[in-house]
């Protein structure tokens, strides 16, 4: 349970905190501008986004159960894995690029929505939280593929969300100084490795479905020298999907993605890296 739980926990913590910061910015802006009467619309949008994200999770699980096993299931898992990798990569670099201006972007959209009416506020809050929720569900679903304990991914995600809510409350009430810039940097790097593992799983699925060639071309097979049940093998398999046996295309995809994305992620930019104050939610 531990490693799959940890991967799901990291996803829930990262995406949950991003959502918590967005919500705190919306609430603080309305409170400071004496528009508390619109808070109900914000919470309605948030609730709708949570329900929609849960519906996506139920849909994915239902489709997976209907497909059962075989080529169609391999293709479905491969496609969802690739979509999850694309989405999380975009979100990681989006947060890195816009962290310094996140508050201004969100409050600007909210000001526009306020001038359009209550439903516009609901819609704005809905889509602001929905992208985090859908990304979280897709990532956890993809990371959980092949897990032996079906409850571990859900429990890990919920635990991560609970931690994110607590951490978000600590930040917004200013009861503790937290360097969120550093937090998002290192969790972003860990998620890139998780995404590399999900990409490897997607390549494996496409090879199993005979969509990609090379399924029998093994890059290495250490299953006879490394105990797959050992703690380190279990840790690497459950978090970043480094298995004792992998095809040439699988490990090539893993290495290329991890090296290129980590290089781009840690590459110095022309503007200062996001500081703690840049992404810290305003105190109400």
Describe the protein in words:
This protein has 284 residues and is mainly α. The chain has one domain (2-279). It has helices at residues 2-32, 39-67, 71-98, 102-116, 118-143, 151-172, 180-208, 231-240, 248-265, 276-279; strands at residues 218-221, 245-247. It has a two-stranded antiparallel sheet. Helix 1 packs across helix 4 (102-116), helix 1 (2-32) runs parallel beside helix 6 and helix 1 packs across helix 8. It is elongated and about 65 Å long. It starts with a helix and ends in a 5-residue tail after the last helix. It comes from Dactylosporangium cerinum.
Entry keywords:
mainly alpha; disordered C terminus; 10 helices; 284 residues; two-stranded antiparallel sheet; single chain
Number of domains: 1
Biggest sheet details: 2 strands, antiparallel
Strand percentage: under 5%
Biggest sheet strand line-up: 1-2
Low-confidence stretches: 271-284
Structural class: mainly alpha
What is the approximate shape? Answer: elongated
| Termini Cα gap | 39 Å
The strand count comes to 2
Our Rg estimate from Cα atoms comes to 20 Å
